UniProtKB/TrEMBL annotation:
This is ASCH domain-containing protein. InterPro entries: ASCH_domain (IPR007374), DUF984 (IPR009326), PUA-like_sf (IPR015947). The lineage of its organism: Bacteria, Bacillati, Actinomycetota, Actinomycetes, Kitasatosporales. SUPFAM superfamilies: PUA domain-like (SSF88697). Pfam families: ASCH. Residues 12-138 form the ASCH domain.
Length: 141
């Protein structure tokens, strides 16, 4: 009998209303990309995920709601994010400036600064981000 390893969690934002909106956007097919700070991987001492990796999308209640597969992983400076990236994030932003303002508010939040261990953390055009494109391969709910 074959046993499979549990999937790594695919976490969007922190539990709460923002995560709920993002998970709903993934499940509806609107969100096919997400961005995180490279510094998060460095702080957690994690390797970047490889293309093809499958993970369990987790909702605010800790429930696995879908299996997603990474189709692209890129590291790029925040200042080079373009409109296609913004639209593929599926968060309703219609301009890079609007997307950036929303992401800066999140990345400058007390919760994120605490997670990074830097109470004065800020981003600028040169801040490196990890852009992950994915697809839902299985809905679990």
């Amino acid at each position: 009998m074959e046993t499979s390893e549990p999937l790594k969690p695919f976490l969007l934002a922190f539990p709460g209303p923002l995560r709920d909106r993002l998970v709903a956007a993934v499940l509806s097919g609107e969100k096919v990309m997400t961005s995180g700070l490279l510094m998060e991987y460095e702080v957690e001492r994690e390797e970047l995920p490889p293309v093809g990796e499958r993970s369990a999308l987790i909702d605010s209640h800790g429930q696995e709601v879908a299996v997603v597969e990474l189709t692209e992983v890129r590291v790029l400076p925040l200042g080079s994010v373009g409109l296609r990236h913004v639209l593929d994030e599926g968060e309703g932003h219609t301009s890079v400036a609007e997307w950036r303002a929303g992401h800066e508010a999140f990345w400058h939040s007390e919760e994120m600064r605490e997670a990074l261990g830097d109470p004065s953390f800020t981003v600028d055009d040169g801040t490196m981000i990890v852009a992950e494109r994915f697809r839902v391969v299985e809905r679990l709910v």
